[in-house]
Specification:
With 238 residues, the chain is α+β, with helices and mostly antiparallel strands. It is built from eight helices and four strands; from the N terminus they run ααααααααββββ. The chain has two domains: 131 residues, no CATH class; 93 residues, no CATH class. Helices cover 49% and strands 9% of the residues. The chain has a four-stranded antiparallel sheet, covered by helices on one side. Strand 2 and strand 3 form a beta hairpin. It starts with a helix and ends in a 20-residue tail after the last strand. Keywords: Membrane, Transmembrane, Transmembrane helix.
Length: 238
């Protein structure tokens, strides 16, 4: 059964809330610096495409040429699948899920330009990015709760690892933001997903966020890593 306009709009908004990267998308694969910048911007604004499609269809009911829509959808699918494969080979499984589910969402919504809705197989596949978006948003509460519970009132901070970027807003705690798309080349170059640093009476304790188990795990001997997790942020009292 084709999805109604209200349901399409709701899904498109959910995709934006779950996938849109603030302030910028995580590092993608290590290509040429110029290409990396392009990929970052693509990953940043790609989640807006479903909502843009809904807005376009609300302004005009005239269907777009089927061949043109098919071409756009095909190119999007090919590019998305290629990036998904590269991420599963060189990156993390979460980066693979991120890229693949976003690709499904965009391709499904592009069909709206011609048919006016999402139907058939795509009406079932669209469940995948919806579930991923809901998971991404719900992770905010899980991370915030665990960080406060683990700190136990001690000063703490949350940060990304390699970028040494302190978390400054709740959007950065979403599941699709608080993770490392890349794997380290070896154990000492490991990319941690997201860091929690707690300043205790015995000294700072560093934790790494585990998206798979939805918990923070202690990092033993953090100073041994080439990019010191302790340098990511400075714990502060609430």
């Amino acid at each position: 059964m084709p999805l109604s306009r209200l349901r399409l709009t709701s899904i498109a908004i959910l995709i934006v809330l779950g996938f849109f990267q603030i302030p910028v998308a995580p590092d993608t694969l290590e290509f040429d610096p110029a290409l990396n910048r392009i990929l970052k911007w693509l990953f940043m604004f790609a989640p807006l495409i479903p909502l843009a499609v809904v807005l376009i269809k609300s302004l005009t009911a005239r269907p777009w040429p089927p061949l043109f829509v098919f071409g756009m959808a095909s190119l999007t699918a090919i590019f998305g699948l290629l990036m998904s494969v590269l991420h599963i080979i060189f990156g993390s499984s979460l980066a693979f899920m991120h890229t693949l589910s976003l690709t499904i969402a965009i391709v499904a919504f592009l069909s709206v330009l011609n048919t006016g809705s999402i139907s058939g197989l795509w009406s079932k596949l669209i469940i995948i990015p919806v579930v991923v978006a809901v998971w991404s948003i719900s992770t905010i509460a899980v991370i915030a709760f665990q960080a406060n519970k683990i700190s136990g009132g001690d000063p703490f901070c949350l940060a990304a690892h390699k970028t040494n970027g302190e978390i400054t807003n709740f959007a950065q705690l979403r599941g699709l933001s608080f993770y490392a798309p890349l794997r380290g080349k070896n154990a000492l170059q490991w990319d941690f997903h997201g860091l929690l640093i707690v300043e205790t009476d015995e000294g700072p304790v560093v934790y790494n966020w585990s998206p798979r188990w939805a918990r923070f795990d202690v990092i033993a001997q953090p100073a041994l890593y080439l990019v010191d997790p302790l340098a990511a942020c400075v714990p502060k009292a609430d």
